[in-house]
Design goal:
heterodimer; A: alpha/beta; D-Maltodextrin-Binding Protein, domain 2; 18 helices; 11 strands; globular; B: MetI-like fold; 14 helices
Chain lengths: 433, 327
């Protein structure tokens, strides 16, 4: 009797554990349920995605989609854990910074064959088609849009300082910001990025100074194979960038990240801001500055009149462990074309992936016009792939962020900073080979 | 599985001892049943579900996490997770910023705990008196403890913002500073700012613990002291503090461990900057995790566990000795 109880207890415990570990099996009625995980989560976007998914489910009655939305800060790590376990994810948000490591670990499914001959490619811009392929031609995600820099500026402050148009180069930016900067009146020239992700704007400045010399396949490499940090122009760029901090930015911007920069511009205290288009929505809602007080201009260029668009991207991919790859690819296709794509990029303030956007009145007017200008002039605003997919990208970001802080705090010189960055990338590339 | 096989004998031993002390007959006069293999198996079977649960959900993750410390475990490339011996530990110590991080951790722990203890004690003494709306005051004072550390960090990040923050605004209006202080951007003031936030946050815990202990002191002691003509200071040092010393010691121990392990606030407020000046060991660990180097982060985690264990043992030994000497 006692033995029977013991066996029963053990059996129950084992069963409990096993049911906890098993995955859901397909529905008997033939309906497939896809688990879709997003990572750049925010409430408005989640609601929008749910709407789009509802449309998809209506068109595909045999497919149900279960959207999982972890908070942004933990999302990529959560996704990594899910992917590592090998199940539970079908469709997922893949970013240019995660695609490298994730595909390397064998977690992502190459959609190349499934998307061969897909009509959606024809409707896409060249940038989008290129971003969908890695160096070996594999398709681990289809981009849903781009984040690209443009210059947010205050029309009224520029005019007051005696300038008739926004700056077109980094040097003009320094000149105008310096003229407007007056800390005693709580007015600042430039919203400097010294905190999280400080490296991005610093490298954007360097790339602008080098423009045509940069290898289009790798934004940190020169056409002659050296790193961009080894070029003498890089030093000019960093010196100008440092002056922008010293002469035209608030002192506390040493620690500014995204929220402080955007706040500084939208509360009316700061004249210039380099940011992604998603900021358009935030600034439009500002009660401190009205619509006619601000605008956007294309990204400032280097002395040669050209610049590099440091486009960042993300998109939808399929997990290798998915048991419903065909249905998952169908959902990716749905989100990447037509009405779904247009509505997603418009409502999220993203640079669109569809060619049709250039003729869309929405993108032709107001703050969006500068993005169209940049897309239409690929000779001046060069499209260069940033090496954001390498496995050491996170390590680089943390190193470079700390170095930018050291620079503006006077603990290192532009020369030392660039020598360090040059050594870092040279060593990594050598290790890779 | 060692957990299940050793447990029966462990539980049997004290039972036997207790039985022999009482002349071989446990309470109720029933003779202790003989320990048979059959009975041992039954006990093991009853314990198995719990043991299995703990093993799967606690010990397995711990061991799995621990062994990463000795492997090349980089999330960015899991194709090669070979054993690397103590390399991850060596990497932790070899980092040029490691000295700064250790120094910051000491400042963070001591600079938080001393003001928290002093202010918390004063608050508890004050809250012990009876006055109108005491309950409301108590609730208000304990409220911060219910807020997440990360959120507090973000709130204080804005309060200490040089241009738009309320701290500079108030200081300027009070005439204490002439121009805004770049609190979080200046390496000299950033640590002060995070300490202020942490002291504000942690005072509450000391106040709660000390107040509870204070309420256990019998009033007669104070009455007797008053009759003997003891002043306030004498009462505090001769009655109050000695009476609650154990609580104080345990609270300090707990808080040292918690503050050491409390990266949330710093992470929300400065992210360890500027120039690593507010990084402590645990924020450093998060930073390494974010780089995807789980091996090195695990090595650092093991070091933290070891350091805190050693600290706890020494601290408990020291406080126990004092207690013994008093008795």
């Amino acid at each position: 009797m006692r033995r029977r109880t013991a066996v029963l207890t053990l059996g129950t415990a084992t069963a409990l554990l096993l049911t906890g570990c098993s995955t859901m099996s397909p529905d008997a009625s033939g309906t497939v349920t896809l688990n879709m995980v997003e990572s750049l989560t925010n409430p408005t976007r989640t609601a929008l995605l749910k709407d789009l998914i509802a449309d998809f489910e209506e068109q595909n009655p045999k497919i149900k989609v279960n959207l999982v939305s972890p908070p942004t800060e933990q999302a990529d790590q959560k996704l990594q854990q899910m992917l590592q376990s090998g199940s539970g994810v079908d469709v997922l948000e893949v970013r240019d910074i995660t695609v490298g490591p994730w595909s390397n670990n064998g977690w992502l499914y190459d959609m190349k064959k499934d998307l061969d001959g897909w009509k959606g490619w024809e409707a896409m811009t060249e940038n989008a088609v290129n971003a969908a392929k890695d160096t070996k031609g594999r398709t681990y995600f289809v981009p849903y849009g781009f984040y690209g820099l443009s210059l947010f500026y205050r029309t009224d402050l520029i005019e007051k300082a005696g300038f008739d148009k926004p700056p077109a180069t980094w040097e003009e930016l320094l000149e105008q910001a310096k003229a407007i900067h007056d800390p005693s009146a709580r007015r600042y020239g430039y919203a400097f990025r010294g905190g999280a992700n400080a490296n991005s704007n610093a490298t954007a400045a360097i790339e602008a100074y080098l423009a045509d010399d940069v290898d289009p396949a790798n934004g940190f490499k020169l056409k002659d194979g050296r790193t961009i940090f080894a070029a003498p122009e890089a030093e000019d760029a960093i010196e100008n960038y440092l002056k922008l901090f010293e002469q035209a930015s608030p002192k506390s911007s040493v620690s500014w990240g995204y929220p402080e920069m955007v706040e500084a511009f939208s509360n009316g205290s700061t004249a210039f801001l380099l940011q992604d288009p998603e900021v358009i929505a935030t600034v439009s809602e500002s009660k401190s500055i009205s619509k006619d007080q601000w605008g956007t201009a294309p990204l400032v260029s280097g002395p040669g009149g050209k610049t590099v668009q440091p486009l960042a991207t993300a998109g939808w991919g399929v997990a290798k462990g998915s048991g419903h790859k065909a249905e998952a690819v169908k959902l990716v296709q749905f989100l990447s074309q037509g009405e779904a794509s247009t509505s997603f990029t418009k409502k999220n303030s993203l640079v669109p992936i569809l060619k049709s956007a250039t003729s869309d009145p929405f993108y032709k007017s107001g703050p969006w016009a500068s993005y169209v200008t940049m897309t239409e002039q690929p000779d001046k605003y060069l499209v260069v792939t940033q090496p954001r997919g390498v496995s050491w990208w996170a390590e680089w970001q943390q190193k470079a962020d700390a170095d930018v802080q050291k620079l503006v705090l006077g603990k290192t010189s532009p020369k030392e900073l660039l020598a360090g960055w040059d050594a870092f990338w040279t060593e990594k590339w050598q290790q890779e080979q | 599985m060692p957990v299940t096989s050793t447990t029966p004998s462990k539980t049997a031993a004290p039972a036997e001892g207790a039985a022999s002390r009482k002349g071989g007959l446990p309470r109720g006069g029933r003779r202790k049943r003989e320990f048979t293999t059959r009975r041992g198996l039954a006990i093991a079977a009853y314990m198995a579900p719990a043991a299995l649960f703990v093993a799967v959900f606690t010990y397995y993750p711990m061991v799995a996490g621990g062994q990463m410390a000795f492997r090349n475990w980089k999330l960015t490339d899991l194709t090669d997770t070979s054993w690397v011996g103590l390399r991850n530990f060596a990497d932790v110590f070899a980092d040029p910023a490691w000295g700064t991080v250790l120094g910051n951790t000491a400042v963070w722990v001591v600079g938080s705990i001393v003001p928290q203890l002093v202010i918390g004690f004063a608050l508890a003494l004050w809250l012990r008196r009876r006055f109108v709306l005491r309950g409301l005051y108590q609730a208000l004072i304990f409220f911060p403890w219910a807020i997440s550390g990360f959120l507090i960090g973000i709130l204080f990040r804005w309060m200490f913002n040089s241009e738009f923050g309320v701290v500079n605004d108030l200081l300027q209006k009070a005439g204490l500073i002439d121009e805004p202080v770049a609190w979080l951007a200046d390496p000299d003031t950033a640590m002060v700012a995070v300490l202020v936030a942490n002291v504000w946050y942690g005072v509450t815990f000391f106040a709660i613990m000390i107040l509870a202990a204070l309420q256990s002191i019998p009033d007669e002691l104070y009455e007797a002291a008053a009759l003997d003509g003891a002043g306030k200071a004498r009462t505090l040092f001769r009655i109050t503090i000695p009476y609650i010393r154990t609580t104080l010691a345990l609270t300090v121990l707990l808080r040292v461990i918690w503050i050491f392990n409390f990266p949330d606030l710093i992470f929300g407020m400065t992210g360890g900057g500027p120039n690593n000046e507010t990084h402590i060991v645990t924020t450093w660990m998060i930073k390494i995790t974010q780089q995807g180097d789980y091996g090195r982060a695990s090595a650092l985690g093991l070091l933290v566990v070891a350091a805190l264990l050693v600290f706890a043992v020494f601290f408990l030994m020291a406080t126990r000795e004092k207690k013994g000497a008093r008795a």
